[in-house]
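Now read this:
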Amino acid sequence: MGRSFKATGRCIWCGKSEPEVSFKNKPHIVPDSVGGSELGKDICDVCNAYFGASTHPNLPSPDLIFKEIFNLKRFFDGGKSITNGEKFRASLFRVVDDKLYLKRSYLNSTLIANQLKRAFYEIFLQKYHAFTGNGHDLAFSGVVAYARYNENVSNLKVYYMHQEMWFRPTILNKTFLLFSEHLVDELNMYGIFPFNFLGYNFYLEVFKDKANENRDSFFETILSKEGFLTTGVEGPAIEEFERIGQLHEIFNFLQIDGIEIDEKN
């Protein structure tokens, strides 16, 4: 008999149980295409496949967008991927004369950012459930609606921190989502979860009401902590993430001179 990846036996995304759904395929918390090795629980095979291969012909899946954005770093850093040593082949992007172009003209910066945000919430809830076992809590219904079904698109926000330097080199190449009891406590207090991956810092508003009440104080606390230097870009050091073109640090790190992506909504 094959291995089953379940704890409660009820999917955290669709809420279905066996025999209506199965739990036989490996549900990577972070996509294995980016080097993720941690496996989740209670992610049925149907939902697991959905995140990896979108059923919409003109809408790349959340996992594909996540893989393409974060594997760009590996593509330019020696031309190797982190999974099997083979040269990374981007399906969405191409590079010509140190400029990044989209291969698919119907995509724009906002659409790509939305799919990336959905991937953040997907990874968050899968890691939260693996860590706490409480991923079925109705408090996460908004996360489920957005990440799994692309509903309530404007309801859950993601913020991005502009940085020019990191002092945490030990985590810059770690392909797992940092998690701890302290982060869970902060989430319950502020409603916001720090999504730190490959040295880049995003912030997910998981509980909207709490986030609305505590957003300013939360970010004031974040900016007062040592461990990074914010950039001198115009505007705030932390801003709402809505367009992929906002990720200046990623493209600057890769020494890409320009990014040719439609910035229109």
